[in-house]
Structures are given as structure tokens and as C-alpha cells.
Amino acid sequence: MNATIVLLPGDGIGPEVVREARSVLEVVARRFGHRFTFTEHLIGGASIDAHGTALADDALAACRASDAVLLGAVGGPAWSDPNAKVRPEQGLLGLRKALGLWANLRPVRPIPELADCSPLRPERLAGVDLLVVRELTGGLYFGPRVSDVVDGRRRAFDTLEYTEHEIARVVTLAFELARERQGRVTSIDKANVLESSRLWRQIAIEVGQRHPDVALDHQLVDSAAMRLITAPASFDVIVTENMFGDILTDEAAILAGSLGLCPSASLGHGPRGLYEPIHGSAPDIAGKGIANPIGTILSAAMLLRHSLRLEAEARAIEYAVAATIASGARTADIAAPGSKDAVASTAEMGARIRDYLGKVEVEAVEEESA
Length: 370
Ligand SMILES: NC(=O)c1ccc[n+]([C@@H]2O[C@H](COP(=O)([O-])OP(=O)(O)OC[C@H]3O[C@@H](n4cnc5c(N)ncnc54)[C@H](O)[C@@H]3O)[C@@H](O)[C@H]2O)c1
Ligand SMILES: CC(C)[C@H](C(=O)O)[C@@H](O)C(=O)O
Ligand SMILES: [Mg+2]
Hints:
Elements: E1 2-10, H1 14-32, E2 35-40, H2 45-51, H3 57-65, E3 68-73, H4 88-98, E4 103-108, H5 122-125, E5 130-135, E6 145-150, E7 153-158, H6 164-179, E8 184-189, H7 195-209, E9 215-220, H8 221-230, E10 237-240, H9 242-256, E11 265-267, E12 273-275, H10 294-306, H11 311-326, H12 346-359, H13 362-369
Parallel strand pairs: 1-2, 1-3, 3-12, 5-10, 8-9, 8-10
Antiparallel strand pairs: 4-5, 4-11, 6-7, 11-12
EC number: 1.1.1.85
Pathway: Amino-acid biosynthesis; L-leucine biosynthesis; L-leucine from 3-methyl-2-oxobutanoate: step 3/4
Function: Catalyzes the oxidation of 3-carboxy-2-hydroxy-4-methylpentanoate (3-isopropylmalate) to 3-carboxy-4-methyl-2-oxopentanoate. The product decarboxylates to 4-methyl-2 oxopentanoate.
């Protein structure tokens, strides 16, 4: 197939990890006989420096015209002045909104060989396989906001606002995805305090009534944060509002062993999606060539699966990542403490994954995925 993929490397480690994911996609194209056309654009701080805006019109137009977008990360200390008029994160939020990407899928499935990397005991990690469906274009991120001075005192507020429609579509998607998995949805809210959460819970119940084959339970976000650590295997699909989902998924990433391992897919009504690792620009390690590229490479696999409907190709990447980990390759973030094994750079990890991809038996993977 022919597909146009826009690359938005962004800031910090973004360009380092996107470079590896692009090379992985190029190997997939060669092995499976596709033609992927890549165009690259600036976003975030890099775009502010070049154009004065976090996402220029031509970059957005290219994303709109593409089949899928692969993004690295935005942000960093150079653009973090609280008084700044323009911020890198506006580029990412604007892109999600402009493309209508209201659902963000964040799967977490710990790899057994990496159990040592997690601060949790291995028995707690047994059977963990969860998917967070995070609402992505509503809530505190997009509600009315004010920062002003009243009677000589500074004041600021953000608004957590949701409509019935915004909640229903993302909760419905969570139920549909649960049907393909273990058939359980946990809706996470703060219904003991927030009006928006009480509406969220009512809608979740109504959507649940239309999906009687899927089990629904509700949890309050504070105790859910605890249960993610004490009983992570009790979750199948989690659905939650934007900010809760942001926070809970960084926490859940630690079940996998590192933030650097976790991919995501942002989807709306059509096939076009935005794919990005859940981590940020990691200013503390940027430029050192040591970032873990796996979250971005697995995001590229999600791109193939969800936007291009290339299931066999997506699985081939996932097999290659699993084989690479099984062979002992480790970037610094997933190296066993005190391990004497040579630690792989970002580029070495990418190259090892591509080597395994080169050995995948294309026909066997295609048959298995059919
Ligand atoms: N999607 C995005 O673009 C995105 C996501 C989160 C944060 N951010 C931005 O990134 C900047 C830094 O935020 P932060 O430091 O709070 O979070 P971060 O995710 O950038 O980093 C948190 C910690 O995880 C480590 N880490 C992250 N990704 C890694 C990887 N691939 N390999 C190895 N280690 C990795 C970092 O070194 C750091 O110690 C901020 O400007 C923030 O707004 C962007
Ligand atoms: C950078 C920031 C706007 C973003 C978010 O909060 O959505 C990030 O933390 C994420 O998880 O993708
Ligand atoms: Mg986040």
C-alpha cells in the first residue's frame, strides 16, 4: 500500500526516538512491499524558535492531508517560562483538537524479562494487561481558563467541562475495545466531589446498559491510583477523563518498567491518527543518545494497526521488540541495577530491533494475523 506519514520529531529526545521509529517503518515497507512517504515538520519549541508558533499552518495542513502522524515529544526548559505567551504544549494540544482525536489508547503489558525494572514485586505484575482509554479533547485541558488580578491579588482558574456527547463517545469506544479483550471496563472518576464526574458516571452506566455483555465498575481516581499499584491485574480497560488519564498512565507505565516503553494512539472518527510515546522530551537525557526508542517504535506499530490496517506488519514490529528484549538488549532506563551488561544506545536499540524485523518470516506473520 501507499501511505503518507507525517513525522513531528519535536523537542528534546523527540528527534532521537522518531529517527529510530522511522527507520523501523522503512524496514517494514521494504519487507512487506509498501511505499511509505515521509514528510517532516516542526512542532513545539522547535517550531516556536523557527516560526514563533508551536504548530505552523503548513505543518497542520500536512497532518490533515496525511494517513497518519508520528510524533516524538514537545517541551523543555527553554520554553517553560510561566509568563511565556506561546508554549510548546499548545502545538500538541492544538493538533489533537484540530484533528478531532478524542480518544487516546495507552496499552500497558509488562514484558516478563523486564520484571526487575519495576519497583513492584514480580507476583504483583503477573497477569497485568491493561488498556487506558483517555478522553483527549475535553476537560481541564480545553475548558475556559483565566489568569488575572482581582482586587490587587493574582488569581487563576481552569474549568473541567464535559458534554454528554464527549463522554458517551469515548466510553462507548472503551466498551467496544473491552469486547475484544477480557470484557471489563473500569470507569474512573471523582464522582464524590465533581459535578463533571457525576455526569461521567451516569453516562458510563447508560452506555453500560447498552453493552450488557461487558462488565462495568466505577472507581474513584484516588483509590484507583492506589489499586494500579496494589492490584494492577484487576484492570482490563480503564476509561477516564483527560487529566486523570494523563496522570494515571505515567503511573501505569512503571508497571511496564519504564516510561520509555509505552506507546499511544490518538484516534477520532476516521482512520487518521496521531501516534506518540507517552513520555515527554526528557530534557535530563536529551542529546546523550541514551533514550529508549521502544515507546515510539511501538507507537509506529499502533500506527500500522489502527490507521493503515496493517495488522501483520504491526505484529512484526511487536515480535521484533519482544525478541530484542529477550536477547538482553537494554537501554539505560531498563538496565538491571548494577548490571554489567553493556547498555545499548538509542541507535543500537533501534538497530537491534530492525535486525530482528529483517528475520521475521513475512508469510507466517501474515497467516497468523489473517
Ligand atoms: N507528548 C509529549 O510531547 C509530552 C509528554 C509528556 C511531557 N512532555 C513535556 O516534556 C517536558 C519534560 O517533562 P517531564 O520531565 O515531566 O517528563 P518526561 O516524560 O520528559 O521525563 C520524565 C522522566 O522519564 C525519563 N524518560 C522519559 N522518556 C524516556 C525514554 N524514552 N527513555 C528513557 N528515559 C525516559 C526522563 O529522562 C525523566 O527522568 C515538559 O516540557 C513536558 O511538557 C511532553
Ligand atoms: C505535553 C502534555 C500536553 C501531554 C498531556 O498532558 O497530554 C503529555 O503529558 C502527554 O501525556 O501526552
Ligand atoms: Mg503525560
